[in-house]
Amino acid sequence: MQPADLVERGLALLLQHDMAGFAGLWAEDGVLEFPFASAGYPPRVEGRDAIREYLRDYPNLLDIREVTAKTVHETADPAVVVAEFTVAGVAVAKQTPYELSYIAVITVQDGEIRRYRDYWSPLAAAEILGGVDELTAAFAGGGRG
Fold it and tell me: Domain of 110: which CATH number?
């Protein structure tokens, strides 16, 4: 699978709330990185199984219902794409609508994600989830990112 194809497949799996399938796009030793992680938040999750566990409860936090914007940029390295996308849905605990934008730098090898650098706004996520304490409980305290 080519990098742009993995982006399409990944977004489709997120819309289906199939987090195990989404994590299954990673290589067995692939890495999910959060370059903007604050102290106390995981800066990286290593390995497909750990990524699957990390993402497992994401649909219980954010019910993604639609991809409202998407652009995939090819780079000088054919194994790397930059995906800009915005998703909309419902914050489950508060049952309020939300929209959140992401930028991901994705490196693919042998049709699997080797490295996924996930850039998103922790402040926007805190607002969506109801505050910094809720964000910390969801994303750092064993929740999902």
Answer: 3.10.450.50
pLDDT at residue 59 in the model? 94
Strand partners, 31: 46, 115
Please report, for residues 3, 17, 26, 41, 121, the alpha-carbon distance to residue 36 in angstroms, rounded to integers and kept in the order given: 23, 25, 21, 9, 8
pLDDT at residue 110, rounded to an integer: 96
Mean pLDDT of all residues in the chain?
90
* SS3 state at 61: helix
Alpha-carbon span 90 to 40, nearest angstrom: 26
CA distance 111 to 5: 9
Task: State the Cα–Cα distance between residues 9 and 2, nearest whole angstrom.
Answer: 11
Q: What is the dihedral of CA 22, 26, 28, 29, to 10 degrees?
A: -130
Number of domains in the chain: 1
Is 35 a member of any domain?
yes
Q: Is residue 145 part of a domain?
A: no
Mean pLDDT of 14-28: 98
